[in-house]
């Protein structure tokens, strides 16, 4: 989601600079199955340019027309696509996804300080978890829709709630979503509104220790995913901006110096791929004390076993929970041979680990592909509703 937001914000800035108007389309609720889940977004420009996606391609054509109408009217609108009937041509599309999809369209007015794009920028501003709220009225699509109206992280909050919106349930949901790290769709008591309350984790950062040719497709693919990349190597001939133009940082340093140069957190993963045993060993020595969720090593398993044995022979006590995050050889078993195939294998495994998935075949998954969002009512005051 964060990577999609990054591309949408960049596209909006380019469109705005060119004098084009835009609308943000957001999936706010799904009943049944759909290609995209609540929180999927797409920016629609008045010239028809699309950034992001709200479906597998079946809704985009009609959504373009609805977004341009919202831009023309200057008013938020909600459109409900019922895909449960394969013969339903109400919207000019045959979907067959067996679900009902609620899409909110919000024309972006740059004169409003807390417009939806500005709130999305807040998600990207700091490397920390955040919550974003979007209010909508599901049963009356012609009624004025509040839209994206609330942002909060650990230190700050920005809210443009409509009149009559109970602040206490919103705050309750913010705390709950941050604690559970899971988005929810929720009815607000005493009002016609529902809220999509999204958990927004920071983007994954991939630290690639090793600037060989095999690191080039890996960092390029990670960039396509919207992940941040840092490349480090002791060789100034390899670790250059020319070779890694999309990296957040390119560091030339000895292994011991990297510890003070790279800040690691629970959303970081590290790949040891210098093909230099002593360099990788020196990095692993301090890396085991850091708070990252994944450590991957290239090469055969016996290479990793030897490194761990060498560290233990030095008197370094390696905790079991730390060895459990080390993957060597790194990557999924997909028969990868070329550098690009290996990059696909490695990044797929990182994605699976980060999402706590088994990385098996989807056809063998007993549950649905997407986790169902929690949806229930909240305790709160019964308040009269007054639209802003």
Structure in words:
- By secondary structure, the chain is an alpha/beta fold.
- It has ten helices and 16 strands.
- It starts with a helix and ends in a 34-residue tail after the last helix.
- It has helices at 2-17, 60-73, 116-125, 167-180, 215-224, 255-261, 277-287, 301-313, 320-323, 339-354, and strands spanning 22-32, 41-45, 50-52, 77-82, 99-107, 130-136, 147-153, 157-159, 184-187, 194-200, 205-209, 228-233, 249-252, 268-272, 294-297, 326-327.
- Strand 9 (184-187) and strand 10 (194-200) form a beta hairpin.
- The chain has a six-stranded parallel sheet, with helices on both faces. It has a five-stranded antiparallel sheet with strand order 3-2-1-5-4.
- It folds into two domains: 2-200, no CATH class; 205-358, 3-Layer(aba) Sandwich (Rossmann fold), CATH 3.40.50.
- Helix 1 (2-17) packs across helix 3, helix 5 packs across helix 10 and helix 6 (255-261) runs parallel beside helix 7.
Could you name the key traits of this structure?
single chain, five-stranded antiparallel β-sheet, disordered C terminus, 388 residues, Rossmann fold, alpha/beta, six-stranded parallel β-sheet, 16 strands
